[in-house]
């Protein structure tokens, strides 16, 4: 660690360290987000080459995120492998109902489990305690195939992950959450490579304008941009650049959501409390 930790955070880091030591060998599902990056970094420090960071590459992963994973692995000396996943070949995934994430994580585990088996390792995912409230049925798919969630088990909230990451000198400590591209497509609209690519192009163009936290929600020929409330004025002030960037991705209409960026908002009205209770959460929010 490069900075001091308070007692609670130090205790959580110690629990996580002990847990990883006990596991001995791990395959980290490495998306490059703050949670998986922290888990991969600390597992690498504890286990060295017995930590294998694996990034699932598919049309649902933004191209910028794949590049970020590659860069982080090189910076931190991680043993890293990109692997192709094929969730688009699953009809149940493409249908895009409220359990789409289950089918995505089932595909992820089908790819990671053989890697872990060959190395006598355990698959671990970067889920924190704050992820347990929204409807994210992927955790069920992961647990069915034996994955572990060390951050949850060690008692990490998102804020604790960011604080510990900052103390470790990880540049991902303040990285905005970045859910998979399919999360931009409303339930009931079939997921396709073309739609995912269109969203990716629009979001990538907006990030090049300096916007860090954002979503481009796909509604046919309309793009609905979400940014944090504090960035709304910036988007309006740069209206022409923003509009050109999103039009260039193929959208006819460009709209700005005045309610701001709200993780999980596409679940509103589609996921019941019973759904949320039945499926514990996994991964980043919609």
Determine the fraction of residues in helical runs and give it as a percent range: 40-55%
Low-confidence stretches: 269-286
Helix-and-strand structural type: alpha/beta
Which sequence of strands runs across the widest sheet? 3-2-1-4
Number of helices: 12
* Percentage beta strand: 5-15%
As a whole number of angstroms, the C-alpha radius of gyration is 19 Å
Number of strands: 7
Query: What's the rounded overall pLDDT mean?
Result: 90
> What's the end-to-end separation, in Å?
32 Å
Q: Biggest β-sheet: count, sense, barrel?
A: 4 strands, parallel
Q: H/E series, N to C?
A: HEHEHEHHEHHHHEEHHEH
The dominant shape is globular
Any chance you could write out the topology, listing elements then pairs?
Layout: H1 7-23, E1 26-29, H2 34-47, E2 51-57, H3 63-76, E3 79-84, H4 91-95, H5 100-118, E4 122-124, H6 138-144, H7 150-154, H8 158-168, H9 193-208, E5 215-219, E6 222-226, H10 232-237, H11 239-248, E7 253-256, H12 273-278
Parallel strand pairs: 1-2, 1-4, 2-3, 6-7
Antiparallel strand pairs: 5-6
Helix pairs in contact: 5-6, 9-11
